[in-house]
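We keep the chain:
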Amino acid sequence: MSGVKQKNDNLDFKKFTFAFFPGTSLMHKLNPISKLIFLILLTIISFTIESLILISCITIFSFLLALVSKISVMNLIRKLRFITLLLIISVILNIFFNAVPSKKEEILFYLFNLNFLPIRRIATYLALKAFFIVLTLFTSAIIFTNTTSMKDFVYSLIRLKIPYKFCFSFMIGVQYIPTIEAEVKTIALAQKARGFGLEKVNSLKRAYNLIFERLVTTLVAILRKGHTTSISMENRCFGLYKKRTNRIVVKFKLRDFVFIIISFLIFTLLLLYQLNLLPLPPIPSLYQILF
C-alpha cells in the first residue's frame, strides 16, 4: 500500500511545477487574459525597480499570492527548490566576479580575510537583484499555469481575434510541459520497478548512463505523443476552415475589470515612485542599512 501511495503522490498533478488543477480561489475565477495582463505588468515592474528591498517585497507578495491561490506551502517549496538552488549557486558565483570591469568597484569586505576573495558592492547588488527577479517571475509563472485552464486561455485568445491555429499550437506547447513531467516520473518509476537506477551513482560513467537512458526513453515517449497528436488533428480535419465556432465562451466579468484596474494602479504608482515623481521619501538601500 505504501508503494501505491508513493506512486500516486509522484503522479499527483498538484505537485507538478506547471500544471493546472481546479480550484475556487480568486485567481482560479479570473479571466485568463486579466491574469496575463497582471503577469506582464509584474514582469515590467520587476525589471524597472532598482531597490533591492522593494524587489524583495514584490517577491514576498508573489509568494503570498501563490498561497492565496490555494498552492500549499509544501507544494510551493517543492516547485521552487530546484530553481532556488540554481539561483543560490549563481549568486555565489556572480559575487566573486567583477560586475563592471571598466569601473572601480567598492569592496565591502574580504571573505575569510583572503585578498583573492573580495565581496564587491555592485556585484553583490546585481547578483541579488537577478535572484529576486527570476524568483518572482518563476513564482508568477507557477501561479498562472496552476490556476489557468489552457482551454479557457485559448478561448480567450480566440475572442481577441487571434487565429485559432496559433492558439491551439500554443495550448499544445504549454500542456506538454506537465505531460512531459508526468512522463518522466512514470518512466522513472517503471525503471525503478525493473531494478534500473537503484544502484548508487558513484561514478561519472554510471551517472551518464542513468541520464542517457532517462533522456532517450523520455524523448521517444514525447515523439510518440507528438505523432499521435498530429494524426488525431489530421483525422479531425483541423485547420480546414479559417473560422470556427466554440461551444465554450469565456467572458470578462466585473471582478476581472476590478482586478485589471487595481493592477494598473499599483503598477503606475510603483513606476512613478521609481521615477521620483511622487512626493515620498526614498527607500534606503540595503547597503545603507547594513553598513
